[in-house]
Recover the amino acids of this structure.
């Protein structure tokens, strides 16, 4: 089993869009037994991938009141399960601080190793107790970066502390017609690119990954290509 975290210091950079579409690619294109674990109290991934609601609140697993596998619920996508988020996760940072167990998430993930090939973590933004747990647990950290000097500077600071071997930066919301975007992408031509597209914004209405309703779109192809890159990194 490999764990991929979708993480950024900034909010509003498309973490959930990446998480949902990459989880779909893992389950569908790679036929992996895949779990998407929504750690963000905003629960956007939970909204986009409807599944049967769990009886236990989302934070209970971290207090070891319930096993992670008992919270996993099947989605409508074959081989893709979801551990849903809810508002109880607003207190997760405080819980981690009080527990003082730096590898709690890593140990919980280890209990899922026989059931899943890939686990994707949709993470809340910011440098927090939760992000520290994620960084310790993930095999690969995918970081969406808006093509601007400030966003790239923020990424550079973060990558310096995490180590480049475990970090995969992604340019997101790219409009190559804009000089600022084109120049930023040119600085890092090796970074994968997810284009800005109206079809991506429709995901909220459709409550589905692009591969289900816009499989031929350039954005869907970009997500598919990104997933192949991730699989290559995990295999290296």
């Amino acid at each position: 089993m490999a764990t991929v975290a979708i993480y950024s210091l900034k909010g509003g950079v498309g973490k959930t869009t990446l998480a949902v579409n990459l989880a779909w690619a893992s389950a569908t294109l790679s036929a992996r037994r895949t779990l998407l674990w929504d750690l963000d109290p905003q629960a956007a991934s939970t909204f986009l991938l409807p599944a049967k609601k769990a009886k236990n609140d989302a934070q209970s697993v971290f207090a070891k009141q319930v096993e992670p596998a008992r919270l996993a619920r099947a989605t409508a996508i074959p081989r893709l399960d979801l551990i849903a988020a809810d508002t109880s996760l607003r207190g997760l940072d405080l819980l981690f601080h009080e527990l003082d167990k730096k590898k709690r998430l890593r140990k919980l993930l280890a209990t899922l190793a026989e059931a899943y090939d890939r686990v994707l973590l949709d993470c809340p933004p910011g440098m927090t107790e939760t992000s520290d747990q994620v960084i310790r647990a993930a095999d690969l950290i995918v970081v969406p970066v808006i093509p601007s000097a400030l966003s790239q500077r923020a990424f550079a600071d973060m990558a310096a502390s995490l180590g480049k071997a475990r970090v995969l930066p992604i340019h997101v919301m790219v409009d190559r017609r804009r000089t600022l975007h084109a120049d930023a992408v040119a600085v890092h031509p090796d970074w994968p690119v997810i284009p800005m597209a109206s079809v991506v914004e429709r995901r909220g209405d459709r409550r589905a990954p692009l591969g289900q309703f816009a499989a031929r779109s350039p954005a869907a192809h970009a997500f598919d290509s990104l997933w192949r890159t991730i699989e290559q990194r995990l295999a290296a």
In short: The CA atoms of residues 7 and 34 lie 18 Å apart. DSSP finds twelve helices and eight strands in the chain. Residues 2-235 form a domain with the Rossmann fold fold (CATH 3.40.50.300).
